[in-house]
Specification:
The chain has about 160 residues and is α+β, with helices and mostly antiparallel strands. It is about 25% helix and about 25% strand. The longest helix has 18 residues.
């Protein structure tokens, strides 16, 4: 009887430990495109022409207009690609965009400035800072439980379009 109780406790502990993981799995339709509408503060995960998920988002602290320079607080606009992921981010998971592209770099250089970089879709900060609407340095932020789903659903190489 004691052995049975220990086995039940062990199975329960293993099952509960899986519930706390920020790394989820996803077995549904492939996300073929991510669409961000900055004006509506919405992000859509799309499979061909079907919206799979929709999220409310926060943007850079100066959200109107395309990101041009490091420190301008704007979120980029245009077509990019999800190109990396960071499970050890300063935020609750993050997936990166390939900003700046060649056009972004050329424009910033023509103005004698740098375009910035490290644009991510991420959760909330791990430390107490950066809350409220449009608080990021140019990234796209969602709730922690939402970035866990996005992290599982969106693969590197997925195109992302960010519209005004």
């Amino acid at each position: 009887m004691r052995y049975l109780m220990m086995m039940v406790a062990l199975i329960g502990a293993v099952a509960l430990s899986g519930c706390s993981s920020k790394f989820k799995t996803y077995n549904g339709p492939e996300v073929t495109h991510v669409l961000v509408n900055k004006g509506a503060r919405r992000m859509y995960l799309i499979h061909h022409n079907q919206v799979l998920k929709s999220y409310e988002i926060d943007l850079g602290f100066a959200p109107v207009g395309h990101k041009q320079f490091q420190g301008d607080g704007k979120t980029p606009e245009g077509r990019y690609v999800i190109d990396r992921r960071n499970p050890n981010s300063d935020f609750h998971l993050s997936i990166g965009l390939d900003y700046p592209n060649a056009r972004d770099r050329a424009h910033a250089l023509s103005q004698g400035k740098t375009p910035g970089g490290d644009i991510f879709i991420h959760g909330k900060p791990n430390k107490k800072s950066g809350t409220g609407p449009d608080w990021t340095a140019g990234c796209i932020s969602v709730k922690n439980r939402e970035i866990e789903d996005i992290y599982a659903m969106v693969r590197n190489g997925t195109p992302i379009t960010i519209t005004p």
